[in-house]
């Protein structure tokens, strides 16, 4: 109760951020769980809350044409190119509260702290809450960052969600004009670099006893959908040898994917969703559709693995007299973080008194799309047990504070690429 009397300036960055993480987590489609998918009513409420925090922090703020929340803190004079910060505010289903929001809220709190001190820089700061990083609702990811990078593919507008709603209609219901997504695109000259703070979503920082780390690269990903077509039939009358059961075929494929990836260190493969049709206890499944998510640090290894897995699925289907249809729904290359930005993050980490640890990101991030606009870099913050995409996702207050201090220092000491080169020569 007493805490309510503290002024914003007296509250530590970590405390303010953690309180806001908790507030945002209350905005969900599911009671007692966090689910906030792209263009849903709760996504809209979350956007409005973020916009209000941005304005409180001294920024002008708006919702862009794809649903990104964009706040701008002017520099010494209006209209200067910006250092762009941010992360995403959509979630997976039954999510944790830190994946995405930590980066958006920390960036807002850093700007608020600078605003309270009246600090302005020879560059502007923009904070973006990207609308769709997870790609849960439509079979594509990074829609918000692609729109900003100018690489949004308009054909995605016709994609339907589970309920048959097209992205075009979902945008309209959200209050946006699908015909204006091009207006969200930014020019390269407007952005000096993109820095994202995010929980690690893995166990490395915890094992190293460090609160923060410097990301070297974001691993690429290939996503596929496989559909196996067999023959539906009566569960009581069709003898086992005569069946063309699509679901048992899918089961064999899934185990083949698992053993293929297990045998190759660094390669990970996941089947996260499966649908058996017609879906009744007493009917042999005539069709099974499943997703695949294949990742590795290198593009060549990942693409080779995807090609071999497609072949393996086709062979299993052939042996079982099933027809396989396999589509690649998403392909993202591995993205390296820029050396000049990494160096500035490393300096900030060291200045905060921590050992500098470089580590790759196995998870995908908006930087994978932002690289088409500008150089990117990331700060990782330790999360408990490396758990993520799960309600148990957790980051300690002290680590939130450490991450925020590093980001604040990066902003305060930021040297645009050209200027940095000038000062070094
Ligand atoms: C996003 O979290 C992803 O890596 O799929
Ligand atoms: Mn994320
Ligand atoms: Mn995620």
Domain unit count: 2
- Tell me the number of helical segments per DSSP (H or I, 4 or more residues long): 12
> What is the helix/strand order?
HHEEEHEHHEHEEEHEEEEHEEHEHEHH
Number of strands: 16
Measured as a percent range, the helix fraction is 25-40%
CATH superfamily caption of the largest domain: Zn peptidases
Sheet/helix structural class: alpha+beta
Q: How far apart, in Å, are the first and last alpha carbons?
A: 55 Å
Report on the biggest sheet.
9 strands, mixed
What molecules are bound to this protein?
Answer: glyoxylic acid, manganese (II) ion
> How much is the radius of gyration in Å?
23 Å
Examine the coordinates and then state which fold CATH places here, giving the name of the CATH topology of the largest domain: Aminopeptidase
Give average pLDDT, whole number.
95
CATH architecture of the largest domain: 3-Layer(aba) Sandwich
- CA-based shape: globular
Keywords:
Alpha-Beta Plaits; binds glyoxylic acid; globular; single chain; binds manganese (II) ion
Structure, explained:
The protein has 425 residues and is an alpha+beta fold. The chain has two domains: 8-218 and 336-423, Aminopeptidase; 220-332, Alpha-Beta Plaits. 34% of the residues lie in helices and 22% in strands. It is built from twelve helices and 16 strands. The strands form three sheets. Strands 1, 2, 3, 4, 5, 6, 14, 15 and 16 form a nine-stranded mixed β-sheet that branches. Helix 1 packs across helix 3 (101-116), helix 2 packs parallel to helix 3 (101-116) and helix 9 (339-351) crosses helix 11. Glyoxylic acid binds next to loops. Residues 88, 99-100, 133, 198, 365 line the site of one manganese (II) ion (MN).
């Amino acid at each position: 109760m007493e805490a309510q009397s503290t002024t914003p300036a007296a509250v530590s960055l970590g405390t303010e951020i953690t309180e806001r993480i908790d507030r945002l987590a209350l905005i969900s489609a599911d009671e007692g769980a966090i689910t906030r998918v792209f263009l849903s009513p709760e996504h809209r409420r979350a956007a409005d809350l973020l916009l209000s925090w941005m304005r409180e922090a001294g920024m002008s703020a708006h919702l862009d044409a794809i649903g990104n929340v964009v706040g701008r803190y002017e520099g010494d004079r209006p209209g200067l190119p910006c250092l762009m910060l941010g992360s995403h505010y959509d979630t997976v289903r039954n999510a944790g509260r830190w994946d995405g929001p930590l980066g958006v809220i920390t960036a807002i709190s850093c700007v608020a702290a600078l605003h309270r001190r009246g600090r302005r820089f020879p560059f502007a700061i923009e904070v973006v809450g990207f609308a769709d990083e997870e790609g849960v609702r439509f079979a594509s990811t990074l829609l918000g960052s692609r729109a900003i990078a100018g690489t949004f593919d308009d054909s995605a507008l016709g994609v339907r969600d589970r309920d048959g709603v097209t992205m075009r209609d979902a945008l309209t219901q959200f209050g946006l004009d699908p015909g204006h997504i091009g207006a969200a695109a930014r020019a390269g000259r407007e952005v000096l670099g993109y820095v994202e703070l995010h929980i690690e979503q893995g166990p490395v920082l915890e094992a190293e006893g460090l609160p923060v780390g410097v990301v070297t690269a974001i691993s690429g990903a290939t996503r596929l959908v496989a559909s196996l077509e067999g023959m539906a039939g009566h569960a009581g009358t069709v003898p086992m040898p005569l069946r063309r059961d699509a679901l048992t075929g899918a089961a064999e494929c899934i185990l083949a994917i698992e053993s293929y990836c297990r045998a190759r260190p660094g390669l990970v493969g996941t089947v996260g969703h499966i649908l058996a049709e017609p879906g009744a206890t007493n009917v042999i499944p005539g069709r099974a559709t499943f997703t695949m998510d294949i990742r590795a640090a290198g593009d060549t290894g990942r693409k080779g693995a995807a090609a071999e897995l497609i072949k393996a699925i086709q062979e299993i289907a052939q042996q079982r007299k099933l027809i396989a249809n396999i589509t690649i729904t998403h392909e993202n290359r591995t993205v390296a973080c820029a050396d000049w930005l990494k160096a500035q993050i490393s300096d900030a980490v060291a200045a905060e008194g921590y050992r500098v640890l470089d580590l790759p990101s196995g998870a995908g991030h908006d930087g994978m799309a932002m690289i088409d606009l500008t150089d990117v870099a990331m700060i990782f913050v330790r999360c408990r047990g490396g758990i993520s995409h799960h309600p148990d996702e957790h980051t300690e207050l002290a680590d939130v504070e450490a991450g925020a201090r590093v980001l604040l220092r990066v902003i305060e000491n930021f040297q645009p690429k050209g200027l940095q080169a000038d000062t070094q020569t």
